[in-house]
């Protein structure tokens, strides 16, 4: 036999194997059938791959939204061998996350996630049970309580102040008369949120290189755990396990690197505690080490579990706050009228203040509407974190089989014309008189999930968003680059995590008459103080930024 034909036939063997296996499982008499079950409707399936081809060429949450318009609020799909249930309406989401919440409170674990958490699960991926309840109690009562979040206020204010300084330094050339540079707001916001989160979690001892390393680990965790690999789609196939050896080694290497780094972070804290170098305020690692030492727990709090919880807090806190801040700025740039209203409110409240502080953020109702509308239009995780059905149950008249993966399309719900007027329009005023909120009770609006598995770090992340956005609007006006028409941007949410293009803007200052002007340029510190004093005493002037001759920002000189 010709060698070419031989090798072609050899290559076809795995395909024939998968095809026969898939047909057997789909047959009425096959071992994969579930006789007597009334499964939800869904799109047609192909052998082997199931329904995956329906997601081709589009973001998953958009493709699933389009499918739900044809097949209904509850759909049944197959991702390879994996049965998947997709909920796309508030009624279906409420059934899953409230009425039958206990049945759907565990997480399906991909191969990457199993590898990463093998030495100890954190709060995000821990299976539903007593161990998860213990971690949840620690998070809600100790790490992310209202008292703890409030105690971190000085950290947030300091980092928000540094964000303003970074923008001012980036625009020093414009103040000197040169062409205004584009500022990558997304990058500056990422640094602000990362620094705030790490300062709160790791304490004063974290280094800039630690921030960059952890940002890399967070990005890698999203990449590794956020999708499906062949091993996840065909978990029963020994052939796929053999062919996935390279991917397995990559995940193992990531696991080793991550926890080697976290070992070093904990070692620094333990050494400080042994040497008696206690600080006035506990960071979140100190809190976990204290709880571990007290020992009043049903399950031991091992070092690996502490590291997993800490990484969950870092990743969750950074991703949500960064995404929301980036999209808020992008939408305000597209809608100059809304930006003007938000700025007028912030500047009216903080006109007599030296800087934006948290104690008066409650006086900014329109800013809160802007944040709510951003969360509605750009859900940080469009499909939320997957859940798994622990026992067969009935939802909206259909049977959900045990072991099925469950996805809630929060993005589709928040953009449904059945529940929102002009759902694709950024319109903060829609929430005036609308009591719907994002805290898990209104299933038309669930950017943080709902039920037992609602995001525990919601307050922690939102505190960063509120202060950061207020600071950017108070100190600066913002304009689009030349040639870009407001509202014409076509950037899309890439997997719901961030903007697919950089958020490039031109920050301007406010002149005496309230129009965009060249700003305040001080040639020396004494002159800067005189200029600052003049601005602070004139109610018709808006303090914006003070820049030295070398571009050093001095917002701390404000009176």
Automatic annotation (TrEMBL):
Keywords: Heme, Iron, Membrane, Metal-binding, Monooxygenase, Oxidoreductase, Transmembrane, Transmembrane helix
TM spans (from-to): 6-24
Residues at which heme binds: 455
Compartments, record wording: Membrane
Main location (coarse class): membrane
PROSITE patterns per record: CYTOCHROME_P450
Cited InterPro entries: Cyt_P450, Cyt_P450_CS, Cyt_P450_E_grp-I, Cyt_P450_sf, Cytochrome_P450_71
Family according to the record: Belongs to the cytochrome P450 family.
The protein, known as: Cytochrome P450
Record lineage: Eukaryota, Viridiplantae, Streptophyta, Embryophyta, Tracheophyta
């Amino acid at each position: 036999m010709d060698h070419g034909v031989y090798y072609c036939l050899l290559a076809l063997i795995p395909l024939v194997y998968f095809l026969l296996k898939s047909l057997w499982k789909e047959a009425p008499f096959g071992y994969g059938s579930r006789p007597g079950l009334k499964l939800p409707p869904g799109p047609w399936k192909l052998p082997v791959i199931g329904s995956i081809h329906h997601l081709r060429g589009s973001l998953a949450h958009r493709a699933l939204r389009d499918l739900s318009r044809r097949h209904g609020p509850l759909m049944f799909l197959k991702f390879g061998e994996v049965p998947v249930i997709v909920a796309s309406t508030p009624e279906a989401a409420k059934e899953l996350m409230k009425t039958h919440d206990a049945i759907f409170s565990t997480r399906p674990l991909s191969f990457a996630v199993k590898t990463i958490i093998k030495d100890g699960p954190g709060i995000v991926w821990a299976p539903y049970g007593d161990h998860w309840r213990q971690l949840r109690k620690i998070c809600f009562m100790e790490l992310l309580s209202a008292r703890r979040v409030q105690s971190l206020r000085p950290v947030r204010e300091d980092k928000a102040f540094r964000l303003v300084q970074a923008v001012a330094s980036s625009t020093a050339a414009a103040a000197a008369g040169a062409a205004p540079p584009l500022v990558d707001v997304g990058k500056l916001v990422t640094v602000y949120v990362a620094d705030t989160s790490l300062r709160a979690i790791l304490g004063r001892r974290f280094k800039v290189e630690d921030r960059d390393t952890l940002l890399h680990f967070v990005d890698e965790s999203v990449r590794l755990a956020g999708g499906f690999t062949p091993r996840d789609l065909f978990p029963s196939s020994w052939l796929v396990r053999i062919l996935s050896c390279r991917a397995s080694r990559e995940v193992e290497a990531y696991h080793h690197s991550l926890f080697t780094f976290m070992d070093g972070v904990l070692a620094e804290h333990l050494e400080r505690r042994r040497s008696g170098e206690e600080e006035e305020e506990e960071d979140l690692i100190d809190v976990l080490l204290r709880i571990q030492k007290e020992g009043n727990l049903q399950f031991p709090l091992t070092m690996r579990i502490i590291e997993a919880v800490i990484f969950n807090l870092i990743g969750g806190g950074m991703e949500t706050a960064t995404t929301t801040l980036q999209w808020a700025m992008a939408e305000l740039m597209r809608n100059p009228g809304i930006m003007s209203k938000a700025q007028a409110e912030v500047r009216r409240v903080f006109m007599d203040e030296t800087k934006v502080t948290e104690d008066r953020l409650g006086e900014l109702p329109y800013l809160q509407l802007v944040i709510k509308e951003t969360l509605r239009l750009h859900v940080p995780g469009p499909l939320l974190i997957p859940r798994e059905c622990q026992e067969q149950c009935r939802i909206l008249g259909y049977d959900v089989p045990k072991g099925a993966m469950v996805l809630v399309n929060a993005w589709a719900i928040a953009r449904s014309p059945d529940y929102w007027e002009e759902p694709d329009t950024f319109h903060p005023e829609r929430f005036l008189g609308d009591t719907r909120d994002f805290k898990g009770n209104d299933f038309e609006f669930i950017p943080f999930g709902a039920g037992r598995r609602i995001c525990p770090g919601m307050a922690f992340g939102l505190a960063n968003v509120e202060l950061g956005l207020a600071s950017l609007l108070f100190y600066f006006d913002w304009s689009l680059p030349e040639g870009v028409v407001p509202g014409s941007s076509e950037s899309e949410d890439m997997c719901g995590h961030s903007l697919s293009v950089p958020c490039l803007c031109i920050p301007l200052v406010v002149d005496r008459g309230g129009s965009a002007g060249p700003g305040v340029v001080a040639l020396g510190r004494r002159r800067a103080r005189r200029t600052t004093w003049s601005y602070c005493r004139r109610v018709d002037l808006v303090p914006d930024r003070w820049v030295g001759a070398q571009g050093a920002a001095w917002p701390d000189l404000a009176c």
